[in-house]
Amino acid sequence: MNYRSLSDLNAAARELATELPDSIDLIVGIPRSGLLAANLLCLYRNQPMTDVDGLCDGRIMRSGYRYDGHREFEHVDHVLVVDDSVDTGRQMQETKSRLDEHDFPFEVSYAALYVSTHGHRHVDYWSEVVSKPRFFEWNLLHHPMLKNSCVDIDGVLCRDPTPEENDDGKNYREFIRTVDPEIVPTERVGWLVTCRLERYREDTERWLDEHGVEYDELVMMDLPSKAAREEREDHAAFKAEVYERTGATLFVESSPGQATEIAERTGKPVFCYEANQLVSPGTVARVQTKGNEYLSRFASDPVAFSMRAGQHVLSKGTDVMSLLSHRYRDD
């Protein structure tokens, strides 16, 4: 499973911006997510941009994000039409067909930040080949792959209850009935998997229906009380069993600790919604191995290692140990 975040998208745009020919004068984005890719490219190249409608109507977006509203292509020789990703090429081909109907007085090229192993045939430039199966941060809960995915509820579709709300009684039932959704998937979910108890099924189903969440199956813990659930302490084990039994290809989990344990138990990828990170099987083992390696390097040359480590943190801005620090969090 391949995953790319918005941060990855930015890095891909920055790389592609340096590789594009200098002859390009205008960046054109294909709605919707292609607009984000085009915006990043035009910022890195300090060039104007527009969308496909704007190109056809003769509108260029200038500084201040205002359209000039008249034709001003006299000095444009080369236009680049951009999408965030290309797989089958259907949308790119539709865009090409539309633009071919216009007798533009300039060259038109096509690009995508990400292409599949076949998608590169539909563009002139790209930044990276990302093979399928794949998903992106900006379309995760709006992707058809949800049909074969398990998705957590608390911490993903809605916030987690506060300690006061999580009383396994009146307050908790009120939380389930009234909590606002944080995101509503626009595709049907295969399995909603939650550690909420079966006694709250009716309230949960009503909430899902009220907010338009479509799903095939709602899987809940069949235990008599919150105390019984806490005594077993098997939240991740329960979710891992469902993940394996259903044959789903992805689990979207809120808790970093549970995400790591589910991946370890099933040997399958888990997307941690809170950490915005894809957790692959063996993550903890790899982090521990790296930790031992870093300790060895530090022991041999503390000053040199500290300098290199500081430079790495500044350039990457990531903390690979975050999953370990959350591993046993029970939320």
Automatic annotation (TrEMBL):
Name of the protein this chain belongs to: Orotate phosphoribosyltransferase
Species name: Halomarina ordinaria
InterPro entries hit by this protein: HAD_sf (IPR023214), PRTase-like (IPR029057), PRTase_dom (IPR000836)
Signal peptide start and end residues: none
GO molecular function, one term: glycosyltransferase activity
Keyword Transferase found: yes
Domain of life the protein comes from: Archaea
Keyword 4Fe-4S (UniProt): no
Keywords on record: Glycosyltransferase, Transferase
Entries under SUPFAM superfamilies matching the protein: PRTase-like (SSF53271)
